[in-house]
Design brief:
alpha/beta; TIM Barrel; Rossmann fold; FAD/NAD(P)-binding domain; 3 domains; 8-stranded parallel barrel; 21 helices; globular; binds flavin mononucleotide
């Protein structure tokens, strides 16, 4: 396989073509030095088989100076002082023991941008938008300031000095971060969208590339000719002609940086502020959907090229390599969800790979599907005594508990009242937009078979079952139910969200969705040709509330940009799905749903189907029934506390690792 072929970049030889890209939320000590947690985090990925491990962007300038090269305390590791060298030396040594190489990314990240002016120029249709919707990092709002020439030079010198420290520590490569639009100084200097300077760092392409060129030259001076220097680019900012385009990248940026002395082009895309969906691509997009950018760059340079972006399976990576679209494939969130992905694949254990669901629920610390990613997980140990474990409920929480208990040596029986496993997550996977949730259901289902869990579907647990099985441990994982408001109870053509997902054929043409949380369902149904109105009591801030940033970004683009009236000629309006904020339901009759807004104005929405997606309540009655019926009785997931995939999977681990 091509993916297993080594590749030489200057004096670094990679054993294969799989790498971990920079992920900022790696662990580190409070003073930003590398600690045991950092080592463990990276080591598990090297152990899993990746040939190249990049650190997230490290702080190359000390905190408190005007040009920041770090985001916030606790969000990473630093290399702005010699005292950080031993930590990097230790990390490099550990990774080398697995045959993996270590690259360190650095650059101006957040806090200071390349352009002039207090804020980026908004699109005409973005006048009303609050930036913090898209650019709050680790809870900190990043301010925009103008960078002085002195600060520019300082940052370049700091970066070069940090690169020299990396080399001294035994690190194998460094990367200048010039990607992701307004999130980095490197990219915002290059970008015509952000850079409005009138000095030698703004204006022409030559001027806008000056920061990157000078920095690369300074790094080169610091590390010598044989040491690999990468650059990470947003090959296309995904802002049309207002930002960097792939044509600019191929014709101007790559040739210029190649001449400046870089050895490898790491191709990302998007803009943290304006096109975040391009960077941390949510589950809504096709896997590997941006590889054509790397492919285009590859045609414009002889340097090795890295491709990235929702590439979650080794076969797809291999295909892209075979097709000559890239020389190395980075897998970020996949190696977060399952660090052993390469190893399992090459050992013929493909069906054991836990594929990332693209949910963006942490991507490093935490990850909803990978309990072990956290700093202090309950350790996994073989059971001291094999017990009979009875799990009631085959959603992802129940299955995860069964997986862990069975792996520890317990004898597990699992009952599921439905005809299939996966519960609410499996139902959500039935919608095109969220079909990637099926990855988790498939993985856990396979584990049930492989671990010989005694799974019985269409079985509701009764006290007789408990008498027959005589379990030592009962784990109740019966999930939650949607609450149907009084006003809708017993009314015809009313379904709750999960019912609607399972009984698509029963949904009529005119759909009203009550609950702004169900934005994904609204978009999916509209895309399937239904006429959809989504309504709720709150405003924009409650639309898809609690969704991770890049998912919300997509949803807002789909819904509010086009549907919330904006007083500008550029605002496009597509009236499906329509969004009605600040309305309450007053009556439901065969003629329609009467909604009333804040001013008391009423509207009747004709409908064929009303879908309710509001509060959920725990189904904990079986827990109460079985209390005292076995030496140990637990409840996990929604049944213990209504939550999300993470609470289901993590609470399953908390219990199943201790029994
Ligand atoms: C939590 C998180 C932190 C990230 N931090 C960085 C970073 O520091 N520097 C960078 O260039 N990219 C960063 N990225 C982008 C990733 O390197 C990668 O390009 C992106 O996740 C797409 O790859 P994937 O779909 O394989 O995860 C980050 C992504 C995530 C999810």
């Amino acid at each position: 396989m091509k993916i297993l072929e080594p590749i030489q970049i200057k004096n670094m030889k990679l054993k294969n073509r799989i790498g971990l890209p920079s992920l900022l939320n790696m662990p580190g000590a409070d003073d930003s030095s590398i600690n045991d947690l950092t080592i463990r985090w990276f080591e598990s990925r090297a152990k899993g088989g990746a040939g190249l491990i990049m650190t997230g962007s490290v702080a190359s300038s000390a905190p408190g100076i005007p040009v920041q090269t770090r985001i916030v305390r606790g969000a990473g590791i630093a290399l702005y002082d010699d005292r950080f060298i031993p930590g990097f030396a230790r990390l490099a040594k550990v990774l080398h023991s697995y045959g993996a190489m270590l690259g360190v990314q650095m650059g101006i990240v957040g806090g200071v941008m390349g352009g002039r002016g207090p804020s980026p120029p908004p699109y005409p249709d973005e006048q009303n938008r609050t930036d913090d919707l898209f650019f709050v990092m680790s809870g900190v709002r990043i301010p925009w300031t103008e960078v002085t020439i002195e600060q520019i030079e300082r940052s370049q010198n700091d970066i070069a000095a940090a690169a020299a420290r990396a080399k001294a520590a035994g690190v194998d490569a460094v990367e200048l971060h010039c990607a992701h639009g307004g999130a980095t100084g490197g990219c915002s200097f290059i970008s015509p969208y952000y850079n409005h300077r009138t000095d030698k760092y703004g204006g022409s392409w030559e001027n806008r590339l000056r920061y990157a060129v000078e920095t690369i030259q300074k790094i080169r001076q610091a590390v010598g000719d044989d040491f690999p220097v990468f650059v990470r680019l947003s090959t296309d900012q995904l802002l049309g002609n207002r930002g960097i385009t792939i044509e600019d990248t191929c014709k101007i940026i790559v040739p210029t940086l190649e001449k400046a002395g870089v050895d490898c082009i790491d191709c990302s895309q998007g803009d943290m502020i304006r096109a975040g969906q391009g960077i941390t691509i949510p589950l809504y997009y096709t896997r590997g959907c941006f590889i054509h950018f790397a492919a285009a760059v590859k045609k414009s340079t002889r340097l090795p090229v890295i491709g990235v972006g929702r590439i979650v399976d080794i076969e797809m990576a291999e295909k892209f390599l075979q097709e000559g679209k890239a020389d190395i494939i980075f897998m970020g969130r996949q190696l977060v969800a399952d660090p052993d992905t390469p190893k399992k694949y090459f050992e013929g254990r493909k069906d054991e790979i836990r594929t990332c669901i693209g949910c963006l629920g942490g991507c490093g610390r935490p990850c909803p599907v990978n309990y072990d990613i956290q700093d202090n997980p309950v350790p996994f140990t073989p059971a001291e005594k094999a017990k009979k474990v009875f799990i009631i409920g085959g959603g992802v929480g129940g299955m995860e508990a069964a997986r862990i208990a069975a792996m520890r040596g317990h004898k597990v029986t699992l009952f599921e009242k439905d005809s299939q496993l996966g519960g609410m997550v499996a139902a959500l996977a039935l919608t095109k937009l969220t079909s990637e949730f099926g990855n988790l259901v498939d993985y856990l289902g396979t584990q049930m078979r492989k671990l010989k869990v005694d799974v019985r579907i269409c079985r509701e647990a009764t006290p007789d079952d408990v008498n027959e099985i005589k379990p030592d441990v009962i784990i109740v994982a019966t999930g939650s139910s949607m609450v149907i408001p009084e006003i809708a109870r017993g009314k015809p053509s009313v379904m709750h969200h999960i019912e609607a997902l399972k009984k698509k054929n029963a949904i009529g043409q005119r759909v009203v969705i009550w609950g702004l949380v169900a934005a994904e369902l609204a978009i999916s149904l509209a895309e399937e040709g239904k006429d959809v109105v989504i309504i709720g009591r709150g405003g924009e801030d409650t639309l898809a509330r609690d969704y991770p940033q890049a998912r919300r970004f997509y949803i807002f683009r789909k819904l509010t940009d086009i549907n919330v009236p904006r007083e500008t000629p550029e605002a496009k309006r597509v009236n499906n799905p329509r969004v009605l904020f600040y309305v309450d339901v007053e009556a439901i009759t065969p003629e329609g749903i009467t909604v009333v807004n804040k001013d008391g104005a009423k509207t009747i929405l004709p409908y064929d189907t009303l879908i309710i997606s509001r509060e959920r309540e725990a189904n904990d009655s079986l827990f109460n029934t079985f209390q005292g019926k076995a030496p140990e009785v637990y409840k996990i997931g929604d049944c213990a506390q209504v939550g999300d995939i993470q609470t289901a999977v993590w609470s399953a681990n908390e219990v199943a690792r201790k029994i």
